[in-house]
Design brief:
Length: 221
């Protein structure tokens, strides 16, 4: 599940089987997670500047466009995926729907990007919020899962601003995921990082969680 060709094939087949575009949601849609995401944007206000939000591994989820639409503060939402097929489908869909944001200065973009190379595109300390809905879980279930997922986590911590947050939505038990996140934060020198978890709820018999890492110290110092 970490191969670009596999995701291209998945989204190509999904779109060809349904001529009318329909968002594909891993785990759950925006309604289930908006109360975890939107309050962070309200408290992270930076006067005279847009808040930069990354939907990492967006696929064809409606999450990014919903954040763009509903944020009362100006945001720049980047929906990024390794699959150019998913990126094209989402770009075409949003253009066709002509979604209007709450704040007219908000911006949304769709980008083909490998999440193991975030800093080559963003540099350091540039993002206010990263949302990972199932991307890390998909990597962990792949052949080189632990190594790749660890690399992605380090990339996320590097490109976040101080006081920025990473949200991971996952079905992994907190006993495993919290230890992994705390260890990675310490390895990056984030002695003042907050790592926490909240329960999202149960879907089809599976319990899902929201893991949050919030930075309070520059990883590059």
């Amino acid at each position: 599940m970490d191969k670009k060709s596999a995701w291209d094939r998945f989204y190509s087949e999904t779109s060809s089987n349904n001529p009318n575009f329909k968002n594909f949601e891993w785990f759950f849609g925006f309604d289930a997670v908006q109360d975890f995401i939107m309050p962070l944007l309200q408290t992270a206000s930076r006067p005279h500047s847009h808040l930069h939000v990354l939907d990492m591994g967006c696929g064809t989820s409606a999450l990014g466009p919903c954040v763009y639409r509903d944020s009362v503060l100006p945001v720049r939402v980047t929906c990024a995926d390794i699959s150019p097929v998913a990126v094209r489908l989402m770009r075409e869909h949003v253009q066709a729907e002509a979604i209007q944001p709450h704040d007219v200065s908000s911006h949304i973009e769709f980008l083909e990007l490998d999440c193991t190379q975030l800093d080559t595109y963003y540099g350091s300390n540039n993002l206010d919020l990263i949302v990972d809905k199932g991307t890390t879980d998909a990597l962990l279930r792949s052949k080189e899962g632990t190594e790749k997922a660890g690399l992605v986590l380090k990339q996320c911590l590097r490109v976040l601003r101080t006081s920025g947050s990473l949200l991971q939505f996952s079905d992994e038990d907190p006993d495993a995921r919290l230890v992994w996140l705390e260890t990675a934060a310490q390895d990056q020198g984030l002695v003042a990082a907050d790592v926490g978890v909240q329960e999202v709820g149960v879907l089809r018999g599976v319990c899902y969680y929201c893991y949050q890492v919030t930075l309070h110290q520059d990883v590059n110092k």
